[in-house]
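From the pipeline queue, job 12 of 40. The input is one protein chain; the requested action is below.

Action: predict structure.
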Amino acid sequence: MADTNMTDDLGAARSLWFRISDGARRFFDGDVFYSFKRSPVVIVAFVVTMLFFLLAFLAPWIAPHNTYDVVTLNLMDAFRPPVWEAGGDPSYLLGTDDQGRDVFSTIMFGARVSLTVGFLSVILAMVMGIVLGLVAGYFGGVTDAVIMRIADVQLSFPAILIVLLIDGFTRSLLPRGMHEEIALVILVLAIAFANWVQFARTVRGSCLVEKNKEYVQAARVIGLHPALILIRHVLPNVMSPVLVIATISLAIAILTEATLSFLGVGVPPTQPSLGTLIRIGNDFLFSGEWWMTIFPGAALVILVLAVNLLGDWLRDALNPKLR
């Protein structure tokens, strides 16, 4: 019996390995990877994006200084210029801020917060948009009309205004201390709620096309539940444009978070993001400490530009008319 179970496990593992290897082979032989490797700009954008992700999420282990450890901070090291400037310290490559924190390390930890907010908010917005778009496109009628009218109303407001309204509403309801504890969660929810419409409208349009095709009609005839039809048959065929929107929305979410943090209504000062660092450095920009705002600002611009370039390439690569 034990030998039989072991044989079955080995067979299942071998089958899984063959499926994974076959999928990888088809990907590397496909049009998307061919388009990727023929575009040096896209390769550079991908490398830069991955570098930001690695530096951000490995910051607690690879950052030169732990900016959250108050014991290691020394106010005597405040306002040190970059290492190539007169008075620079080799221990602080890009200089220090007003609290003596290493600017390079704060950028790594700040990018960690910005990417976390952007990534989680895009995932949540994508889930909301996909569910509502599938329901509206498949069932139609009153359901479709209600969801799309809500989407139209929301599109009449700028996304940043919606986020500010949600943040202000939660601040009025929650005690100050409690709001600061869950500020990151509120910010993710607010940005996601402001950006679900693009996903919903795109998925709805694709679903209207797919639901009239023969494979969906056949699934209805054999009596499959609508939820199974949507998940098993319709959803895989509407994911290409969703992935493109998700990539571009990541850059928008990062910029939205940076804007809110710059205005002082984003993440709390105890968890500084790139926007918070730019706001803090802006207070000292005209007194000569330019590095405190220039370097975080440059990091934000490079990150958003790299993600946008990847989104533009993915849009073209997944468009069959451009192949």
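Job complete. The chain has a mean pLDDT of 81.
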